[in-house]
Amino acid sequence: MTLKKGGGELRERVDSSQQGSAAPGQKPGAYVTKDVAFIADVQQVDRKKGTITLRGALRTVTLKVKDPQQLKLISKGDQVEGVYSEAMAIAVVPAGAKARK
């Protein structure tokens, strides 16, 4: 994520996704990815808890900031720009051999 001191830009959210599947002749499999690019306003900074509250285009979230030095740089009214990604993949694999009794 990138800190934008003083803010001033419009909050925004841009969603994108990709998907794919195994080539013909390969074992079945597929994947899907989703990326969310955003600009969010810093609504609150809680230095004791080590959290910031961000208001984005669609929702407000509170995030933990792990690095105390980074937290010192963030103030209410700043903006944060970043990308959130998630992915899921599935594949069919052969079953293991059954144990003999």
Strand and helix layout:
Elements: E1 2-4, E2 12-21, E3 29-46, E4 51-55, E5 60-64, H1 68-73, E6 79-91
Antiparallel strand pairs: 1-6, 2-3, 3-4, 3-6, 4-5
Which descriptors would you attach to this protein?
101 residues; mainly beta; six-stranded antiparallel β-sheet; 1 helix; 6 strands; 6% helix; elongated
Précis, in short:
This protein has one helix at 68-73, and strands spanning 2-4, 12-21, 29-46, 51-55, 60-64, 79-91.
Main beta sheet, described? 6 strands, antiparallel
User: What is the percentage of strand-forming residues?
Assistant: over 45%
Q: What is the helical fraction, as a range of percent?
A: under 10%
| Outline type | elongated
Radius of gyration: 21 Å
Structural class: mainly beta
Number of continuous helical runs: 1
Q: What are the segments in which pLDDT stays under 50 over at least 5 consecutive residues?
A: none
Q: Using DSSP, what is the number of strands?
A: 6
Mean pLDDT rating: 92
SSE topology string? EEEEEHE
Distance between the termini: 56 Å
Task: Write up this protein.
Helices cover about 5% and strands about 55% of the residues. The chain is mainly beta and about 100 residues long. Strands 1, 2, 3, 4, 5 and 6 form a 6-stranded antiparallel β-sheet that branches. Strand 4 and strand 5 form a beta hairpin. The chain has a domain at about 1-15 and about 35-85.
